[in-house]
Amino acid sequence: MKETLxxxxxVTMALLVLFxxxxxxxxxxxxxxxxxDYSFFETADGCDMNASASGITDEDSVMEMEMDCCxxxxxILEGQDDLKISFDQFTFEQQIFISTFYYTYVNLxxxxxxxxxxxxxxxxxxxxxxxxxxxxxxxx
Length: 140
Hints:
Helix content: 25-40%
Number of strands: 5
Largest sheet: 3 strands, antiparallel
Distance between the termini: 51 Å
Order of helices and strands: HEEEEEHH
Strand order of the largest sheet: 2-1-5
Shape: elongated
Radius of gyration: 40 Å
């Protein structure tokens, strides 16, 4: 039980360190209010909003106009760069409090065996003669 709890805590702490130091960027491209493209690792592809006025039949007078309704949104989440927390930042009294709290907390969960048998490792003496029969002493 204690070993599995230790493994769970160590995996949780490793994931916490990983996700606190990881930084990522989300790039999104909107056309009006509609999300057209998004990307996590590279820039999002833009749409080519080219509209042509083809109401006129003359091909020379085809007019291309570019629509400016598109927006790009970039969300950047910066990770933590410095993880080393110096123990020198604490005062001496705080260091003493932390060390005694840790010591008492660790020793709180150590169980003491209540059924302590001091002679468990020793073998009984060899029985050569039955002393009670030899001395004719019986408990009645």
